[in-house]
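Write out the 3D structure for:
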Amino acid sequence: MMQLGVFHDLEILRNTDPGLFLGDAEGNEVLLPHRYAPDSFEIGDKVRVFVYLDNEERPIATTEAPELTLHEFATLRCSDVNKYGAFMEWGPEKQLFVPFKEQARPMTVGHWYVVYLYQDPITNRLVGSSKTHRFLDNSKLTIKKFDEVTIMVTHITDKGANVIINGKHEGLIYMEDIFEDLRTGDRLKAYVKKIRHDHKVDIVLQAPGYRSIEPNANYIYEELQAAGGFLPLHDKSDPETIKNQLGLSKKSFKKAIGALYKDKKILIQKDGISLVEEA
């Protein structure tokens, strides 16, 4: 049988009443119903299709792209719930089944959930799971500090935003590091701020620049560099002076220099701020 849940480039073998039969190099065949067939084709042409099981548990092909493929995560809408589990809209005509045992919390019709697609080893069916944690592994990280990564927000708590990193690892954006609205399902570029001894990963959204995460801090850092390493501004400076020189509110200025100081990039002195010389 062809691998389910992924795309295949298959050859058109024959045209029948139900549709086009497609085949691979190993002699496996699958039906592509006429409603998904190309407008024009010849026997022997190649077609890129997604293969899954239909309502009769038979392999079937479609040219419509699903929201996710095997071993991927996506945010899906729950369209129905019955005594066996929930059903998610994911693109193919047959909706994706999420058993109750695979639900991190009971699913409700009309709500959206982060779902992982896997193949059940016993039934061979494609199944969804919102228990994303068990499909992520931080024991062997493929990332390092300051790497640019792709993240997906799974859920937000008082502590911060839990995220999936590069579809493989889990991480956290602490609440104090969030400077924009985030929602479950958001996909963003981000950066590895810190990898802890227990392999927990801290993520930030802003480019490292000077290795800080406060958005105005990079600007102040560059101003310090342009001024020769010193600015006659500090946390006690007059708000108008700060605004006239940097175009920032005093609150934003203090937050930025606090981040720079915490990151050991500046010294805060009585008469101003200065860059810490790199070792």
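The helical segments are 217-226, 239-246, 250-262.
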